[in-house]
Design brief:
The relative contact order is 0.15. The protein is 19% helix and 31% strand. It is elongated, with a radius of gyration of 30 Å. Strands 1-2-3-7-6 form a 5-stranded antiparallel β-sheet, with no helix packed on it. Strands 5-4-8-9 form a 4-stranded antiparallel β-sheet, with no helix packed on it. The protein starts with a helix and ends with a strand. It is an alpha+beta fold.
Length: 167
């Protein structure tokens, strides 16, 4: 008899709980969508007339992925700066990228990297690779139609990143 009362109370409690949940189900329904809803703009309206150019280049040789993006491609003065990120799960990335990099143009200019500003070591490293531009090289760099960044010995013999320059 004790088990019958216990089972009955348990079933009644479950029934009440179920009824409460079903009764409140309408409160959890999403509001109907409106066909006139406006989404936020995907681009900055002030930049809508500017061309969208993806300057990022990626190299996936070996166990290291390198992503390179020029930061001041069109507005350089005394330096040209690249954002570089290196990602791996097996290689120590404590090397000095400035010692392993050079920038060349199709019209004969070659510049060594001046500085690699990034944390030392780890498996996910991001920093800036800077090239100093001597005054006499500025006009040669500006008249080039192609720039090529070469990075050597980062878990691959050579990695080459190229940008075509529209004049």
């Amino acid at each position: 008899m004790k088990n019958v009362w216990f089972t009955t109370i348990l079933l009644l409690s479950f029934g009440l709980l179920l009824t409460a949940c079903i009764g409140n189900a309408a409160a959890f329904q999403p509001a109907p969508s409106s066909s006139t809803a406006t989404l936020p703009p995907l681009t900055n309206p002030a930049q809508q007339n500017e061309p969208s150019v993806d300057l990022k280049r990626t190299d996936t040789q070996g166990a290291v992925t390198l992503d390179v993006n020029p930061l001041n491609f069109t507005s350089f003065e005394d330096t040209l700066i690249f954002d570089v990120s290196m990602n791996t799960h097996s290689v120590d990335l404590s090397m000095d990228l400035a010692a392993l990099s050079e920038l060349a143009t199709n019209n004969g200019l070659t510049l060594p990297a001046a500085q690699w500003d990034a944390p030392k070591g780890g498996h996910h490293v991001e920093g800036t690779l800077t090239f100093a531009i001597p005054a006499e090289a500025k006009s040669v760099l500006q008249s080039a139609k192609e720039w090529t960044l070469t990075i050597k010995s980062v878990d691959a013999p050579t990695r080459v990143f190229t940008w075509q320059i529209l004049q």
